[in-house]
Amino acid sequence: MIWGICVLRIDKLTKRFGANAAVENVSITIEGSAMIGVIGASGAGKSTLLRMINRLADASEGAIWYQDREVTHLTGKAKRQWQSECAMIFQQFNLVPRMDVVSNVLHGTLNRRSTLATLFNLYPTEDIHRAIDILDRLGIAENAPKRAEALSGGQQQRVAIARALMQDPKIILADEPIASLDPMNAQIVMDALRRIHDEDGRMVIANLHTLDTARRYCDRVIGMRKGRVVFDGTPEQLTTGVARDIYGAGAEFSEATTSTDIAALEAGREALPA
Ligand SMILES: Nc1ncnc2c1ncn2[C@@H]1O[C@H](COP(=O)(O)OP(=O)(O)O)[C@@H](O)[C@H]1O
Ligand SMILES: [Mg+2]
Fold first, then answer.
1. 2 found inside a domain
2. Ligand 1 site, residue 223, Cβ cutoff 6 A
3. Looking at the 3D structure of the chain, how many domains does it have?
4. Is the CB of 43 under 6 A from ligand 1?
């Protein structure tokens, strides 16, 4: 390992639910501050993979390393520390709807605050200033006092990104961050993630539901099918033939397949439970 370069190493990772392997023997090494897109049909194992990295789910076999630390079996404080280093963003934003925006963002500091301070909603002034600065960076500072539920989906997802940044994470894990957004807001949110990656050098791993988004925003694309990695390469290498392999033989892609066709194909699976 080279010091100073962030390395996330996933080694022969498997997750079983009963007889079904959601993720099977997955090995991926990510060096530096890459922006990675993970694509694949519904049930391919994308969410389970991210959840294992963040330790929301435990691996059945294999290991996850970050730098020189194995994070696969961390417990207690060490596990919470790791979870604050790899912030998670969800399709449904997971904000507290009735709470104001700035308090939602300040929730990103929960891991390092005392129970008493949390109980009484006491936040240091410097944290409040930082939360507003982050909201400002994402172009939504004027919404700071509003209830989260009063914001549009695109604004709510930016609040979720602000909450993640409040943790000052090394890695941002985004599970279909734009799947609930209209195209304009999807672009704003993806632009924000890309900018955070470029400016801060944070590693971003995003499960994405359209090939186009992965191609446009990511340096590297990982294709999953039935729990396994079936493609790992650059957007340029992600040809129509490769897309067919990733999404399965039933998926009809011609050279003339448009992004709209693929989006329609993928939309079918979006109706399925996550
Ligand atoms: N908590 C769970 N219990 C049982 N099976 C699960 C659970 N979570 C996911 N699975 C199964 O694991 C497989 C992968 O799911 P998931 O990681 O959600 O895929 P994706 O995010 O690519 O749609 C699916 O077959 C799904 O039904
Ligand atoms: Mg999923």
1. no
2. no
3. 1
4. yes
